[in-house]
């Protein structure tokens, strides 16, 4: 009985300590100097008329917003040296009507507002510092932050990501991923932790791979799906599919060499699979030809951007999918480049919020979005599931 009471008291002390620590962290954060300007519905419309603005519409609870926050503050600090642009934020949990007015349907949504104009241009790129700077330079027609970028600390482009049940599948949907599945109580995991962080940091500017980890105690469903039986387990995942299990030495040098080897193998596979015979199996449409191009039959459309790494890795799979339907007059495999001026409005109308986005249309009407892994057989089955019921009618 005494030991039970002691456990209860210990738990209370732990909770009290955690609360006190959170209060300290909150106070510390309150004293961090913020460079981004906070707007509300009361001043937003008037302020964006005066100067160019780049605005982040966000929610405090949004994990993606929290990860973007330090980069957004870096961008805002750089804007202090610029006369023609201001970096700002709008909290959509307190100004919901303002966010609705600007078609904000997900967080974070980033929009550039040209001085004097009420309608913004939606940003669709990566949320790293260099991509944001490139976008601003294009919008402003002049180099943003020239001379200041090198002096800033490196942004967390591909630094260590903590994945959850909610974020895991969308994250590994396309591309190359090296993931550490661990348990917080595991001694070997604790020993690996700083090495894994070092690996992520050393590859943060590598656009071809992401380094991440998953807490299997907090997110058992993910770990069960990938048949994790011990900790730590390090898997190489490509386009949502397990490709290899790492069994080598757990040093930074060995882990980094393994990543290089797996990336080289992936590049060799792309070169081997590349074939001109599939060049015409995929139909390229633009905003001008889209409506006519999808008005009959089943159309499976990939909305993409040429600079998007996930899109590049999907390109060959998409060609192979097109080849499977090249003799089927009822099915068209299509791609739309959303960076072309002639297609930007189309992509906005079709609610393309990220790249690649895969929509299926029947007789000109959008009927479904593909959100599974970019695996050729799965993509083929997805199309056939929509073709067969249609043909039976």
Automatic annotation (TrEMBL):
Cleaved signal peptide residues: 1-26
Keyword Nuclease: no
UniProt GO MF annotations: protein disulfide isomerase activity
Transmembrane regions listed in the UniProt entry: none
Keyword terms, alphabetized: Signal
All residue ranges annotated as the Thioredoxin domain in the record: 10-141, 152-264, 268-388
GO biological process: protein folding
A single GO cellular-component term on record: endoplasmic reticulum
Xref: InterPro entries: PDI, Thioredoxin-like_sf, Thioredoxin_CS, Thioredoxin_domain
Signal recorded as keyword: yes
Pfam families: Thioredoxin
PANTHER family reported for this sequence: PROTEIN DISULFIDE-ISOMERASE C17H9.14C-RELATED, THIOREDOXIN DOMAIN-CONTAINING PROTEIN 5
Family: Belongs to the protein disulfide isomerase family.
Full protein name: Thioredoxin domain-containing protein 5
Origin species: Ceratina calcarata
């Amino acid at each position: 009985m005494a030991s039970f009471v002691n456990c209860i008291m210990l738990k209370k002390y732990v909770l009290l300590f955690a609360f006190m620590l959170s209060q300290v962290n909150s106070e510390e954060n309150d004293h961090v100097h913020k460079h981004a300007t906070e707007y509300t519905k009361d001043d937003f419309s008037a302020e964006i008329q005066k100067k160019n603005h780049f605005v982040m519409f966000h929610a405090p609870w949004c994990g993606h917003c929290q990860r973007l926050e330090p980069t957004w503050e870096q961008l805002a600090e750089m804007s202090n040296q610029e006369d023609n642009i201001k970096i700002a934020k709008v909290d959509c949990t307190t100004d919901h009507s303002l966010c609705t007015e600007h078609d904000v349907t997900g967080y974070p949504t980033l929009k550039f507002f040209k001085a004097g104009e009420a309608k913004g241009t939606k940003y669709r790129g990566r949320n790293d510092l260099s991509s944001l700077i490139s976008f601003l330079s294009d919008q402003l027609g002049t180099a943003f932050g020239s001379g200041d970028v090198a002096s800033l600390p490196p942004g967390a482009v591909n630094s260590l990501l903590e994945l959850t049940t909610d974020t895991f599948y969308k994250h590994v949907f396309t591309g190359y991923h090296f993931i550490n599945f661990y348990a917080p109580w595991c001694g070997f995991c604790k020993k690996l932790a700083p090495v894994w962080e070092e690996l992520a940091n050393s590859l943060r500017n590598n656009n071809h791979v992401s380094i991440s980890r998953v807490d299997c105690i907090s997110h058992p469903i993910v770990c069960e799906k990938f048949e994790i039986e011990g900790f730590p387990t390090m898997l190489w995942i490509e386009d949502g599919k397990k490709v290899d299990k790492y069994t080598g030495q757990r040093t930074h040098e060995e882990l980094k060499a393994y990543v290089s080897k797996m990336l080289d193998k992936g590049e060799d596979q792309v070169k081997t699979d590349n074939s001109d015979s599939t060049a015409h199996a995929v139909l390229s449409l633009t905003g001008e030809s889209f409506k006519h191009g999808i008005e009959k039959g089943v159309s499976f459309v990939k909305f993409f951007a040429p600079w998007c790494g996930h899109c590049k890795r999907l390109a060959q799979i998409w060609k192979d999918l097109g080849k499977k339907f090249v003799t089927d007059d009822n099915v068209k495999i299509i791609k739309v480049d959303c960076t072309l001026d002639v297609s930007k409005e189309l992509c906005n109308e079709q609610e393309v919020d990220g790249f690649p986005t895969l929509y299926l249309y029947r007789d000109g009407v959008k009927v479904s979005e593909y959100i599974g892994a970019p695996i050729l057989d799965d993509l083929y089955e997805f199309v056939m599931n929509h073709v067969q019921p249609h043909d039976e009618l």
